């Protein structure tokens, strides 16, 4: 079974600064996807960024980027130029990419990020 | 936004009563999931469906049952609610895509309180 570990229950950052959220995972699979989801106080689960394990290039989406280290099974999220609207719970998630897996997600416990003005 | 609607959005019920939560999608996605979210646990999979009438258990399925009679609807039933089932419940849908774009889309969540 896969496990996802987020070792930082809470973090805070000043507006306009950069912050990195950590995620490690454990799997014996070679083909999989990794995701970061954001959950603001509205409770909505919003996909922030996705990474395919077969791609060596790190994914980026505007101010959000990842550092994907497949051998180390590490998948950290970097948020640049932090904004007040980035305040949310962030979840790291793992999905096996084979149809036999039924594309289920395994989540970490989350990191609560607070952006301070 | 993906067309996923959960109902009800909030519910308070008494211990021992049956409760059914509904997830309705308009995306024609094959896969549907029910997760529960609890502080300190993240989201955990309760049950999932890989087609009409095809369902299976997740990691925290005890006390829950599901049904999927149509592609668009996935029902989660608590046969006899207990206080440990007080939680926020999320429905999600997924459809495998080529090019690595498989992802899950989530409903708005249902906050269930069992008193």
Overall geometry of chain A: globular
Topology, number of strands of chain A = 12
SSE string of chain A: EEEEEEEEEEEE
Taking the sheet with the most strands of chain A, its summary is:
6 strands, mixed
**How far from one another are the termini of chain B?**
34 Å
- Give the count of helical stretches of chain B: 0
Task: Pick out its properties.
heterodimer; A: 117 residues; mainly beta; globular; B: 115 residues
Outline the structure in words.
The complex is a heterodimer of chains A (117) and B (115). In chain A, β5 and β6 form a beta hairpin. Chain A is 0% helix and 52% strand. In chain A, strands 2, 5, 6, 10, 11 and 12 form a 6-stranded mixed β-sheet that branches. In chain A, strands 3-9-8-7 form a 4-stranded antiparallel β-sheet, with no helix packed on it. In chain A, strands 1-4 form a two-stranded antiparallel ribbon. The mean pLDDT of chain A is 94. Chain A has 117 residues and is mainly β. By secondary structure, chain B is mainly β. Chain B is 0% helix and 57% strand. Chain B contains no helices and 11 strands. In chain B, the strands form 2 sheets. In chain B, strands 2, 4, 5, 6, 9, 10 and 11 form a 7-stranded mixed β-sheet that branches. A 4-stranded antiparallel β-sheet of chain B has the order 1-3-8-7, with no helix packed on it. In chain B, a hairpin with a 2-residue loop joins β5 and β6. The interface between A and B is medium-sized, with 26 and 27 residues.
Q: Secondary-structure blueprint of this entry?
A:
The complex is a heterodimer of chains A (117) and B (115).
Chain A: E1 3-5, E2 10-14, E3 19-21, E4 24-26, E5 32-39, E6 46-52, E7 60-61, E8 64-69, E9 74-79, E10 88-96, E11 105-107, E12 111-116
Parallel strand pairs in A: 2-12
Antiparallel strand pairs in A: 1-4, 3-9, 5-6, 5-10, 7-8, 8-9, 10-11, 10-12
Chain B: E1 4-7, E2 10-13, E3 19-25, E4 31-38, E5 42-51, E6 54-57, E7 64-70, E8 73-78, E9 87-94, E10 104-106, E11 110-114
Parallel strand pairs in B: 2-11
Antiparallel strand pairs in B: 1-3, 3-8, 4-5, 4-9, 5-6, 7-8, 9-10, 9-11
């Amino acid at each position: 079974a896969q496990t996802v570990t987020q070792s930082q229950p809470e973090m805070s950052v000043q507006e306009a600064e950069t912050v990195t959220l950590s995620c490690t995972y454990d799997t014996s699979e070679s083909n999989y996807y990794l995701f970061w989801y954001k959950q603001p106080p509205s409770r909505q689960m919003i996909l922030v960024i996705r990474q395919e394990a077969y791609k060596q290039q790190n994914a980026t989406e505007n101010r959000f980027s990842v550092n994907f280290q497949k051998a180390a099974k590490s998948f950290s999220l970097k948020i640049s130029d932090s904004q007040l609207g980035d305040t949310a719970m962030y979840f790291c998630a793992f999905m096996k990419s084979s149809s036999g897996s039924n594309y289920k997600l395994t989540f970490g416990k989350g990191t609560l990020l607070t952006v301070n003005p | 936004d993906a067309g996923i609607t959960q109902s009800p959005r909030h519910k308070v019920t008494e211990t021992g009563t049956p409760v059914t939560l509904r997830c309705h999608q308009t995306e024609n996605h094959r896969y549907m999931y029910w997760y529960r979210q609890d502080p300190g646990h993240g989201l955990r999979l309760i049950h999932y469906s890989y087609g009409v009438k095809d369902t299976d258990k997740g990691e925290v399925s005890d006390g829950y049952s599901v049904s999927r009679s149509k592609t668009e609807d996935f029902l989660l039933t608590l046969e006899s609610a207990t206080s440990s089932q007080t939680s926020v419940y999320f429905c999600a849908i997924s459809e495998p895509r080529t090019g690595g774009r498989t992802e899950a889309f989530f409903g708005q969540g249902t906050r269930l309180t069992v008193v």
